[in-house]
Write a structure and sequence with these properties.
Keywords: DNA damage, DNA repair. By secondary structure, this protein is of the alpha/beta class. About 45% of the residues lie in helices and about 15% in strands. Strands 2-1-3-4-5-6 form a six-stranded mixed β-sheet. It starts with 18 loop residues before the first strand and ends with a helix.
């Protein structure tokens, strides 16, 4: 992993292919740790404005955590400012939808999507968010900067945890998938019939839906 803290990286900076620009507060976070085993260069920067992440496909991400939602409505002002910010990026909001925030999610979804006109995707937590970030880049059809260095690294606990965040996939099914596919990208692109032969029809459909649902 490469770390870069350079004042020349501005609010509208687009990272090169194979890189993600992260706000400094995400250093050592579960989300960043979830990407460290991949061939991705993580650039840390203080000057992203309100955004938390910049992706090479010109997607800007603002992350709304469980604690942000529980703390009250102050995060809504940040969302408004984020929407109003002049940016060359497509703006995307990731929201932690958990047992504690589920009751607020409907109203939050309406505010973000209908009132502000932003795109929103729910995540179960930072580990799921790291998998989703990889999914976004894969779906753009670009060179895969997240491929795991060797198939043996797929069985590392962090990677196993990532795959278990796919709906319908527990530990046993995650192990089965990782034994079959040599990268997360291959799992992204797997045929439904192949998935069914490994984890069964119901779970296969959930995995396939996760990687093929509309992103923006």
């Amino acid at each position: 992993m490469t770390e870069w803290n350079n004042s020349s990286v501005a609010v509208n900076a687009v990272p090169p292919l194979g890189h993600i620009i992260c706000g400094q507060k995400w250093r050592n976070s579960a989300l960043v740790n979830g990407l460290k085993d991949g061939d991705v260069n993580i650039l840390f920067e203080d000057g992203l404005g309100l955004a938390d992440f910049h992706l090479p496909n010109k997607t800007s991400i603002l992350y709304v955590s469980e604690s942000d939602i529980i703390a009250g409505n102050s995060y809504k002002r940040k969302l408004v400012c984020y929407r109003n910010a002049c940016s060359r990026f497509q703006e995307l909001v990731l929201v932690e939808k958990t047992r504690l925030t589920k009751q607020y999610f409907s109203a939050l979804h309406k505010f973000v999507v209908f009132d502000l006109g932003l795109s929103l995707l729910p995540v179960g937590g930072q580990m799921e968010a790291s998998l989703l970030i990889a999914q976004i880049i894969y779906r753009e059809g670009r060179e895969n900067p997240f491929r795991w260095r060797t198939s043996s690294r797929l069985m590392e606990p962090r990677v196993l945890t990532l795959v278990q965040h796919i709906p319908g996939v527990g530990r046993v099914k995650a192990l089965s998938l990782l034994q079959e596919f040599s990268s997360i990208q291959q799992l992204c692109n797997a045929d439904l019939s192949k998935l069914e032969s490994i984890v069964g029809q119901a779970s296969a459909q959930q995995v396939h839906n996760f990687f093929h649902r509309p992103l923006l």
